[in-house]
Amino acid sequence: MRSSVVVLTVAFGYLALLFVIAAWGDRRAEQGRSLIGSPTVYALSIAVYCTAWTFYGSVGRAAQYGPSFLLIYLGPTLAMLMAPFVIRKMVRIASAQRITSIADFISARYGKSSSLGALVALIALIGITPYIALQLKAITVSHAVLVNYPQAAELRLADESFWADKSFWVALVLAVFIILFGTRHLDASERHEGMVAAIAFESLVKLVAFLSVGVFTVFVLFNGPAELFARVVAAPELTRLMSLEAVPGGALGWVGMLVLAFLAFLTLPRQFQVLVVENVDERHLKRASWLFPLYLLVINLFVIPIALAGLLLGDVSGDPDSFVLTLPLSAGLEGLPLLVFIGGLSAATGMMIVETIALSTMVSNQLVMPLLLRSRHLHLSTRGELAGWLLRIRRVAILLILLLGYLYHALIGDAYSLVTIGLVSFAAACQFAPALLVGMYWRGANRLGAGVGMSAGFLIWAWTLLIPGFAQSGWLEAGFLDQGPWGLAWLRPYALFGLEGWDIYTHSLLWSLTANLGLLVGISLFTRQSPLEQTQAALFTEAMHPGLVQTTLWQGQTTRGELRALLDRYLGGAATARVFATHPDEAADDSQPAPPGLTARAEQALAGSLGSASARVLIDSVVRGEALNLESILSILDTTSETLEVNRRLEQKSSELAHASEELRAANERLRELDRLKDEFVAMVSHELRTPLTSIRAFAEILRDSDDLPDEKRRHFLDVVVRESQRLSRLIEEILDLARLESGRLTLEPQRLDLVALARHSVDAVHRPQENRGVTLEVEITPETAMVIGDPDRLEQVIINLLDNAGKFAADDDPRVLLRLERYKDHYRLAVEDNGPGIAEDERERVFEKFHQIQRQEGGEARGRPRGSGLGLPISRGIVAHLGGRLWVEQAPRLGGACLVMELPEAPAEKLKAES
Amino acid sequence: MSTPRLKERLVALIVLAALLFSPPLLLIADRSAAAPGWLVAYLFLAWGTVIALMAWLMEHRHEE
Questions:
Q1: Element (H, E) at A888
Q2: ipTM for the assembly
Q3: For A748-915, which CATH superfamily applies?
Q4: Given an 8 Å threshold on Cβ–Cβ distance, is A290 in contact with B54?
Q5: CATH topology of domain A4-152+192-371+390-438
Q6: Phi, psi angles (nearest 5°) of residue A886
Q7: How many residue pairs from chains A and B have C-beta atoms closer than 8 A?
Q8: What is the pLDDT of residues A773-792, one digit of tens each?
Q9: What residue ranges are annotated as transmembrane (chain B) (predicted)?
């Protein structure tokens, strides 16, 4: 079953299936029922990130360097977490500017510079072609392993003629596929729906294949993870693989690799293609931002188990890079290895398809087109012809790129292990990161800085990673690595400027990115931007600005006829008609001036096919005057952001105002309430004062007018006058006290005193009058002393007042009053209870209001008990509060009536010591 | 971006993920060698948690 014929039939059958899926996807797109309009398909298409390198190489890397392979996936996870900020902005910019590739993106950002675009395209071509070669190598090796097992898959590519090399034919089939589905439309910014559908399908296939091997290894070869783990623990050299020791460069290498993977995920041309250019709807990012990391996690679950299993089984499994194939083969299986081979094939082809499309677009738009546009000859060519030219250029580019990849693979592919090539490519792509990311957020970054920085970064990359690779392949003498070129030790590629002991990728990344970023920022700070650069910089950095969408930025003049001729020549009749259909104007003929919107639309259409730099050159050739109005766009951005800022401040101010007026209203309310209370108080005071005055006056008049009153009566009346006068003066005394309390002018003389003694003294004072009224007074004092800080006269006044009140409100038959003094935490509580009716819960606070008098039931006054002024309790509370205590009412626990509790803090202990 | 604090929460999650995936915490996981595979288990656990939090942040408002 593993005969070459079967394997080849299955492999090419699988490629044929891809054709069918892609064709179906394109058909559905034409019918308007897009297959890829779903966030899940989008997330799966991003999984083109997992190449043959993931599929075979992860296990190899895990077998050698332990968990460091995970970094290649943790970096993208971090990047996807930032998708709602960074990638969303990239997508927004790309759709506004009709961006076709990362080279186009960078060139457009820096003033549609064709030289910068060409530089990016060149770096990508040099850096990424080995990566394509790597995929071809993976296909060849996996095929050889599959067919030759258990013999070692000794490969000597140079000995074979190319037509016997399967990867050559795979490359050819892929070239046909990419030409069919990648260059159907000229407009590269339009989506390649069929291709994306095929890529998403391939992502599923490789996931299923890898999980199958994983499950087989763990559960069939080893009866579950427990057994595998137990055998690994028994082999100490394997447990080392699961710790940080195995990671090259240790903790520092770890961080370097994380940054490398993070940046490469955003800047690899194929990732940019699927993430940004092929994005149908920016809302898809939401799902993809967690679904794609989840895909990465799942596909990596079994990497370490497979690596460990392969190492445990020893010789039968051969090279770690092939463990996924050799493990099922060693168990004598037939079907599973074939599935694994297909999985690896889909991982490799998926990457090659997208990468080649991205690279060919760059080559045609950034390298070839600018050259063609410079030649006079092409400007004169007949209508529609250039459209065909462009497609042909792109197709030739596809063929050449794949052929280049194949040549690289056939000539020097043997020298590298899979992982090395992948990481070298990653580091090359990282050189785009400063220009890309800084350009998106800093308006000041300019073309010269980006160009010089990127070139420097690229050169350092080549010196520290690419050339040493050649040296290791034996193309250069080995001394070059150890002693440096011409014996210059500080130029040693793996220890530049003497920086030794670093992992080579972290080392290269540090120097190249430092130079790249440093030059970008440094040069940008000291040179000027051209007007077009300023405009583009503003458009990129402010891409999320809401006011930017409907703005027309054109002010140059041209006629409809000229514009039509230009589009006709480059895009063909159909595309031209589509552009003009967006601005239908019956009356206008070709000599009329073109409206600004139409000119902008025309440039967009050209940019979508040729890249922004070339489109710009073409539009300039027909438009007179400054085509893009820099002043207006900057002023739009500035005024809108200023307006926004002003609005924000206004909003803040008005909310502050509302808040202040709310406070004012509340204060006013309080004032009015106080005013009302004052009026009430004055009315009450007058009333209270008038009552005794009236009776004094009445009795005094009787005494004056009636000379014949009996002595007994006269004495009685005089008694009343005296009693009422006393009441009056007491009342005035109380009112004065209250006024002093409320104004804060009450003078207290706080001193240390013993509350026990004071309480006993007060009880003695009221004992007699209470007894006269038939009130039983009980005293219960638990502490021996109770030292508090207070004014003795005032406190005694309070206690007497409480006892008086209690006596007044005690029950009519057998009135009883109880005074308790006890310690409560670091306070003393003096409670006075009575056995009266008690005070209802909602009345309890009101007894402390001025002149509040509890309604006595059925004429308690008749029993001759003195009436209160209604000021005793408010004054008592004021005094107690002044002394730092509290006074409140509760249900009497013993006698069942009301209970007034006074609580005072204990006097500080050190004073006690000082005194004693 | 309709929830006012989504941005802040995202930033917090990014910081959390960066912390979980980098050395100080990693070294702790590596050295507290309760079992040989502890570092690997820690990595997958942290990774899964971050993904779950992101999924929750991105999706839960759909259901409201």
A1: strand A886-891
A2: 0.92
A3: Histidine kinase-like ATPase, C-terminal domain (3.30.565.10)
A4: yes
A5: Sodium/glucose cotransporter (1.20.1730)
A6: -135, 155
A7: 83
A8: 888 888 888 888 888 888 88
A9: 39-58
